[in-house]
Amino acid sequence: MHRRSLLALLVTAATLPAAAAQAGAVRYALDAARSTVAFEADFGPDKISGTMPVARADLAIDFDRVANSHVSVTLDATRAEASFPFAAQALRGPKVLDVFSFPSIAFQSTSVRGKAADALIEGALTIRGVTRPATFLATIFRQRGTEPGDLSRLTIRLVGSVQRSAFGATGWADMVGDEVRIEILARIDRAA
């Protein structure tokens, strides 16, 4: 993300704590067309980066008691893309994601801690049919063009990393690093 757009988001985030109190968890719908799931791993001295589309998402945010919030996301691994064609083909193949056998990746939160504008989300991540704990740092912002206190259109930025070997995605370990860094930028709208 560019520094200028991140700075604009940070300025916007400053008004979230002053927002009007919500009564319990508020459900949000993902705007998949305006959301991105990006990842990168080391490839020798270079990086391999890529994206993966969201197939489904279930989100609820409690601005008063963040522990009552939850997130469930399913990614379409069959449509994973990478920074060059060989990497995309290898990523989807049997030595890494094995999308023929495991077409999706899922995350289900188990706890949310912190504040509504900045929280730590712990949960269960399933890749290749293997489920392991995963943690993401979540930062929430009002979208550009919304008024202070308007929580109807938000952006959530989630960052974290996983060791691909923990999920059995060990192909090309001699060329590609084990750590996969993940950044999710989710645009959400309050559900009707």
Description:
Helices cover 10% and strands 51% of the residues. With 192 residues, it is mainly β. An eight-stranded antiparallel barrel has the order 1-4-5-7-8-9-10-11. The longest helix is centred in the N-terminal third of the chain and has 11 residues, at 3-13.
Helix-strand layout with pairing:
Blueprint (H helix, E strand, L loop, with lengths): L2 H11 L12 E5 L5 E8 L2 E6 L2 E8 L8 E7 L4 E2 L2 H8 L11 E12 L2 E10 L2 E13 L10 E11 L12 E15 L2
- The string of secondary-structure elements, in order, is HEEEEEEHEEEEE
Structural class: mainly beta
Strand order of the largest sheet: 1-4-5-7-8-9-10-11
> What shape does the CA trace take?
elongated
Share of helical residues: under 10%
* Gap between N and C termini: 30 Å
**Main pleated-sheet profile:** 8 strands, antiparallel, barrel
What are the low-pLDDT stretches, counting only 5+ consecutive residues below 50?
1-22
Count of helical stretches: 2
What value does the average pLDDT take? 87
